[in-house]
């Protein structure tokens, strides 16, 4: 028997035929030891020999214990068979342990099966297991994968002794459910509790920082990665490239990229190209693409998406069309909906609205909301009210609650002085109970993110902020700034219009950045906006960059804007 135990201990790293030899030897010697067969089930499942694992369970284990059942359930992980075996286990009857629940929650997350997972959660509560780290972290992952981050956080909050796996599951879950502020808060709590970081907690925190374009947070996580030795890990390094790129600091992203160049895979290259693409730097994106091929790496769909995004942001129609064709003909890759959306956006921004609509209608995909939204934004850019109405209706057909459809259409109609139709759109919005998403802007100061709404006076330094903004607006008026009235209702008095435009969220964020010394003199102020930056703020920031003699960088929902010395890198094309 000792020889069989030695064999099973090393079987996990030996070829599959060795498992069968060990199995055959056990049969010929008449081995009946249950723990041996439990291990054999696990070895067979890891070798993708499910039928052999089932045969061992049914033919050699007459009285399975919880370890036997858990091995069988784990062998069927990711399939409904795991549930069937679990039900058989309960009827046996045998109660599950932590590993049984962890395997089942993983299956519930991958299928997904929310209803079965909730029932498992109930059973784990009755057995007083869900507060244990092993089960709790699996449950957090399950609810996160099911897009229920609040339920995941409730489970996390109830875990008595949180280890690095629990924190990593929560950070990744929040970051993956578009709750980046909460993810970074949990990451900070993890460090405050002196719980060690893992590859997953680090990459999850970087994903959250990337979504927020939070430069200081990215730098803090970078420093933590250096101190823990994770900075040399390819996954973490790729996250840093992505984080710095999305924060607009492509020079820092490029430095990390160059340091780990020989070890980076296509994902790292795509992250670097994406950083330049958001800046509209199509020349560097193409250079990287060619260098990537020279390194022996094969470009994929995301490589071409970075290139097409760059062409879209630079309004380069011919180049976008050439790369889309090359993707199909030279690389044998079928463009996806996102690739066509970039091409349509390039056409629309260049004023070729009819061609853009034709491509959207004839591409091999059903246009989605993002496609119609891009076309609608292009119509707004060029003041094409009739076509904007048509694109808006198509967007509303897909999602009646999409506030952007109503707001953009109303703004285009207002710009063209068609106030009766503006009233019609607003009535439609009211009848359908559509709520307009509020514009939010945020700025990071000493590692803390400060969020502002339009006309926001909740900040503790609001008096200073409004005083500073008033000074700025008076100075830029002297330089020649003129408010952009077109998108304001004609029924509003001019004094009210002026005050409304003055106190947009992005202007408040810039004023706060100045009064709080968010960046040293001469360094850029960095603002993030959840919506498209309005025309008036865009115009005002050109003048403000002259007044304060520094660069102002704004990342809106579409792209990066770098204001300096009275100009913007977008060339007024966004």
Overall description:
This protein starts with a helix and ends in a 6-residue tail after the last strand. Strand 4 (552-555) and strand 5 (560-564) form a beta hairpin. 65% of the residues lie in helices and 5% in strands. It has a six-stranded mixed sheet, with helices on both faces. It has helices at residues 2-10, 16-29, 34-46, 50-60, 66-75, 81-91, 98-110, 114-126, 133-145, 149-158, 164-176, 180-192, 199-212, 215-228, 234-246, 250-259, 266-278, 282-294, 301-313, 317-329, 337-349, 353-362, 369-382, 385-398, 403-415, 419-431, 462-479, 494-502, 505-515, 535-548; strands spanning 440-445, 448-453, 525-529, 552-555, 560-564, 567-568. The chain is elongated. By secondary structure, it is mainly alpha-helical.
* Number of helical segments with 4 or more residues: 30
Low-confidence stretches: 1-17
What composes the largest sheet?
6 strands, mixed
Secondary-structure class: mainly alpha
Strand line-up across the major sheet: 2-1-3-4-5-6
What is the rounded Rg?
29 Å
Rounded mean pLDDT is 88
Q: Quote the beta fraction.
A: under 5%
User: What oligomeric state do these chains adopt?
Assistant: single chain
State the total count of DSSP E strands.
6
**What's the shape?**
elongated
The end-to-end distance, rounded to whole angstroms, is 73 Å
- Share of helix, binned: 55-70%
